[in-house]
Amino acid sequence: MRILTAVHARPRRTIRVALWGGEEQGLLGARAYVDQHLRDDASRSKISVYLNDDPGTGPTYGFYMENNEPAKRIFDAWLAPLRDIGVRRNVIEGIGATDHVPFDQAGIPAFTVIRTFGITIFARGTPMLI
Prior knowledge:
Layout: H1 2-6, H2 28-37, H3 41-44, E1 50-52, E2 57-64, H4 69-79, H5 101-105, E3 110-116, E4 120-123, E5 126-129
Parallel strand pairs: 1-3
Antiparallel strand pairs: 2-3, 4-5
């Protein structure tokens, strides 16, 4: 959001940022949000897309496209100018068990980033990716 403010962006749509709890316990926060706020078609129609940034650590390499070929064409066009900063490709396949899943199941186009999977541990206060 700081970047959008800094460049004086004027989005045509509202951008929401959310932090879900209980993902590792069964996507509890995202499921609760969908169940409470997106029960009907009118509520769901107000959301154009859900972008999730969850799996792994490190740079974003692209997006899992959840078998949505029309969206992949759009995302591929977005990706092209970002190759010089390490963005690589969008994959048509999906990924389960991240907070985008309840939105996808509710019929909202939902995608999650591709990142390096790893486990971060702390050894004497210094984070390490293993």
